[in-house]
Amino acid sequence: MNSKADLSKQPGQVSAMFDEVSTHYDRTNTVLSVGNDRLWRIATTRAVDPKPGERVLDLAAGTGTSSAAFAASGAHIVAADFSPGMLEVGRQKYGHLTNVDFVEADATALPFGDAEFDAVTISFGLRNVEGPQTAIAEMLRVTKPGGRIVICEFSTPPNRAFRGLYDFYLDRVMPTVVKVVSSNSDAYDYLDESIKDWPAQPKLAAWLREAGWRDVAWRNLTGGIVALHRGRKPLETA
Questions:
Q1: Taking a C-beta distance cutoff of 8 angstroms, is the pair 130, 157 a contact?
Q2: For residue 62, is it within any domain?
Q3: Is 105 annotated as a binding residue?
Q4: What is the DSSP letter of 179?
Q5: Given strand 76-81, what is the order of strands in its sheet?
Q6: Phi, psi of 219 (to 5 degrees)
Q7: DSSP helix, strand, coil percent of the chain (3-state; round to 5)
């Protein structure tokens, strides 16, 4: 029986759902995004700007595709996810990379000490967290003073006409495609629901500021289907 999470986003439900889609997850994402997932990953990697010697937390890392992109810089990457199935696929694909560690972790209670990371990032995972504001605060806690956050997430196209086309794609086109390419088509009903339920760009920016992040800004990608939010942890004051 296929697992499908709902908008209550109970961690057990969401984890089980991602376990089931893990095998074909990357292929499905590429098909559904019409190849844009690769462009979004490049933009995110540039925004994170990992450098040799830095320690970067890639939260909701899934199968490790984004972590591998960050690791090419020479930085040490901790690929964290709460889906064991996703992490197992990641280890099979990228376990040979000596600067990537795969760790099972809950975004709302990270198993890391304070100020461990130079940068934290999460791609297409924050909206799946039961308490996204708690996760944002946890990411602040584990980031070094002056460190940075980058969130890549589905968002709200600001142009009304384009938003209408996007809604048509989510409601009519995507379900048909998913039945062909996914191992759990029901899970992608949740994808549609979670995207529509997710707040627009200004609200996520407000959550970041409320948590204590500074210099918060965002950049729309693909007409606002996706947005990159950035921020920086304030330097500690005496």
A1: no
A2: yes
A3: no
A4: H
A5: 100-104, 76-81, 55-59, 117-123, 143-154, 226-232, 214-221
A6: -135, 130
A7: 50, 20, 30
Would the annotation count 106 as a binding residue?
yes
Task: Report whether 101 belongs to an annotated binding site.
Answer: no
Which residues are within 8 A (CB) of 206 and not within 5 positions of it... i.e. 6 or more apart? none
Residue 63 assigned to a binding site: yes
The verdict on whether residue 107 carries a ligand-binding annotation is yes
Place of tokens 């209670």: 109
Range of the domain at 121: 11-232
Give the mean pLDDT of the chain.
Answer: 86
- How many domains does the chain fold into? 1
CB-based contacts of 184: which residues, under 8 Å, 6+ apart? 2, 3, 4, 17, 20, 21
Sign of the CA dihedral 33, 35, 39, 42?
A: positive
Give the total residue count for the chain: 238
Q: What is the per-residue pLDDT for 173?
A: 82
Residue at 204: amino acid letter: L
The CATH number of whichever domain residue 179 belongs to comes to 3.40.50.150
pLDDT digits (tens, 9 = 90+) for 80-97: 998 888 899 899 999 999
Within 8 A by CB and 6+ apart from 185, the residues are 2, 175, 178, 179
pTM of the model: 0.85
Question: Which H or E element spans position 161?
Answer: helix 160-168
